[in-house]
Design brief:
mainly alpha; single chain
Amino acid sequence: MQINRFSRGMSDYQIKMAFIMPTMILLILMNIFPLLWSLYLSFHDYKANMPNAPEYIGAKNYIEVLTDPDIWGYFRTTAYFVLLAVTAQFLIGFGLALLLNRNFPAKGVVTTLLLLPMMLSPVVVALFWRFILASDDGGLLNYLLSPLLNLPVINAIFDPPIEWTTDPKIAMLSVVIVDTWMWSPFMMLIALAGLSAIPKYLYEAADVDRASSWFKFRWITLPLVSPLLLIALLFRTMDAFKMFDIVYVLTREGGPGTVTETVSMNLYRLAFRNYDTGKACAMAYILLIIIVALSNIYVKYLNRVKGET
């Protein structure tokens, strides 16, 4: 009787809030509070390894970050990596999706095998590729390329064995190769979902009109799949700007020198090596603003494409 009276005393809204509030409190404690705390520290001089309380210094941390030429060099390195990696992942992923968007034997097995790299941990992938790209005799890629490396034309360009992760000229290319190998399946999966959702009768109508393959791709496939492709590009661009683990493991903390040191890598160095917590928080918020700005550009273009479609 008492339980029934209690249940009748709670409205549907109260019952809903009773289930939602624990999750909301957990999200606030784990996400929103660190975000606000780091924003607070970005305006203070503070070192996490010192017992001193944060000292308010205004926008000094932001000014130091924005006027430091070395930090802008890390931003250029990050932009270079994002441009190469995301472009390669888009082309390879979309190309694989076009090949898989048809019926053939063992299609499910092939698709599953192609998706495996995306399911691995980035640290495992970096360790795996560090063995493949090793410049000594144990390097698998140099061993496989050894017949080509002995050719006079190739030998004039590269001095075998190729030092994939320690040569400043190609170290960033090695990082791009590893990231592309891991995340091209993500692009493929999103593109394949979009291709599978295109109504078949559109292609049948085009076949009746004797339309060419290029016409069907340009005016049917590309417009209808482009919204999902833009969403995939948005996610990969955001993630590539924050990429840390592959660089850390593959090139041993951004080497050689600072050739592969991205913004996230330098952020880690500031926060956990130099313990300049306030400056690291300011740099993190500048990176956040850049990512949000790029995301808005993607979303604006996505809305326009959806309207045209």
